[in-house]
Amino acid sequence: MIETEQLTKKYGDLVAIQNLSFKVDEGRIWGMLGPNAAGKTTTMRILTGYLPATAGRASVAGFDVFEQAEAVKQSIGYLPETVPLYPEMTVESYLGFVAEIKKVPATRKKAAVDRAVQIAGLQSVRKRLIRNISRGYKQRTGIAQALIHNPRVIILDEPTIGLDPAQIKEIRDLIKSLKGEHTVMLSTHILAEVKEVCDGVVIINEGKLMASGSLEELARSFSQNDGVYLKLDRTDGEVLNLFRQLPGLKEAALEGAEIRLEWPWGQDLRTRVLKFCLEKNLEIKEMRSLAMNIEELYLRIVSGGMEQ
Amino acid sequence: MSAVWSITKKELVSYFTSPIAYIVIAIFILLSGFFFYSLVWWFNTQALQMSQNPYYFQQVNINQMVFAPLFHNLSIILLLMLPVVSMRLFSEEKKMGTEELLFTSPVSVIQIILGKYLASLVVLLAMLVLSAIPTIFTFIHGNPEPVPYLLGYLGLFLLGAAFLALGLFWSALTENQIVSAVLTFGTLLLFWVLSWAAYSARGLWRDVLNYLSFFEHFDGMTKGVLDTSDLVYYLSFAFFGLFLTHSVIQFRRWR
Question: Could you tell me which residue, B215 or B154, shows the higher pLDDT?
């Protein structure tokens, strides 16, 4: 649904992004992750047709961003980093205006505004001036604006920045509800957001692509095996030997106070491990996944400079 | 076309929900009313004196003595006030980040420019129409010639349209509204003084300076003469302003 190929953007001598190639499938929510000034906003601006790229290709919803700019703009809803609001308009008249410039037919305009208000939860403020509504509602109005013409692709640049925890949760739930019907790409530097909302990520740093793929794919590419760390009431060689009898297990090793169990990707031995512990009368204090979590992944990718 | 109209509507909402349009229109009406009143008063005393002498009485002409100077005064007020009307058109969008919404919509840059320009012309039209109301009474109590009167207002509109196109260009260059207004104002003054420079110049140089000056072209219209070259001057000036605005916006995005 979104695809880039060797995308490069230079501002004079400054290289903002370099040879970026990635792909986002239809109906998924994809995160764009990277430290500040990594090139996230630039990439999004190119995809939405706000900025031209210096080199490379990009396509959205099957249209070329450079050659079929109007068709691309028609199929994208975009929330820029600074929410583009006119404070002197009411929420309703603002959404009406956006519907007009996004070429929603006049007969369907009212329905489109109603729908966007409904989805973004703006019923209580729809008649109020934008200047007088809270930060959270402004952000929601920004998202409603991006949804107004029911676009196939929605691009959100830092949608939860500057909000309080309750508002962040609301916006995240809102974004999750868009999945399936829309393809969503959002940029963020909050890792928890990716874990909670996204199916996959594109990680960029200093304008270069560091990794991309679904969260599971990325985890796989960084460790050969799936597995768990186990903390039991007793940890000794005898226990370890017991585990080595467990069929399917590739490795069992002691690591500090924990036992590391590994098995090949694709088969999940967690239940078998649990049953085994019950049988052998071993009490489980803690069990956690061996696969790197997103924080570890991100830090390793960004600081280690591992390119895929 | 509907996209242009959507932008125009939105701009008009902005103009008329902020105090700018009201203040500009009110002050314009006030000043034009004052000039009109004092010119009519001066005309009355003159006419009274001239009526003593049958030869001079032939020369009494309300178009020449009231309307021509009124239009000249109004043209200077437009020069002072229209930069305030045009200053926010693009500057504000840039400052508020809303230009990102406009330029990522399936609306062309030309449509955006035209929509904004049209809205500023509506404000200009409101200024002129409202300020013209008192002058209608001269038709009830006297008999001015309608053609020079109407041509004078047409001239003011064309002049204002050229000012606004220039203002639009400057507002596309900066996100600061004050800077945009001052640059517009400065450029307009420059075009005004070109006609002074023309007095001391000679030959071709003089013709060129005279041709470029705003007010040389305006003079004929206040006298009831419609010269197509004047019309072409104002329309091409406005077109050139819009063209430059388009170039600036495209250049900023493509550099």
Answer: B154
A101 touches chain B (CB under 8 A): yes
pLDDT confidence of residue A264: 80
pLDDT band for position A307 (cuts 50, 70, 90): very low
**Going by CATH, does the domain composed of A224-290 fall within 3.40.980.10?**
no
What mean pLDDT value characterizes chain A?
86
> Measured between beta carbons, which residues in chain A are less than 8 angstroms from residue B254?
52
Q: Which domain holds residue B130?
A: 2-254
Lookup: tokens for B253: 């995005």
Q: Which pLDDT belongs to residue A293? A: 66
Q: What is the number of structural domains in chain B?
A: 1
Contact at CB, B101 and A102, closer than 8 angstroms: no
CA B158 – CA B161 distance, rounded (Å): 5
Angle of helix B19-50 relative to helix B109-132, nearest 10 degrees, comes to 40
For residue A287, CA distances in Å to A39, A168, A238 come to 38, 30, 19
pLDDT at A90: 93
Question: Which residues of B fall below an 8 Å CB-CB distance to A?
Answer: 2-3, 6-7, 9-10, 13-14, 17-18, 96-107, 253-254
With DSSP H G I counted as helix, E B as strand and the rest as coil, what are the percentages for chain A, rounded to 5? 40, 30, 30
Class of domain A2-219: alpha beta
Q: What confidence score (pLDDT) does residue B57 get?
A: 75
Is A7 in contact with A17 (CB distance < 8 Å)?
A: yes
Helix, strand, or coil (residue A228): strand
Chain B residues near residue A101 by CB distance under 8 angstroms: 3, 6-7, 101-102, 105-107
Q: Where are the domains of chain A?
A: 2-219, 224-290
Model confidence at A52: pLDDT above 70: yes
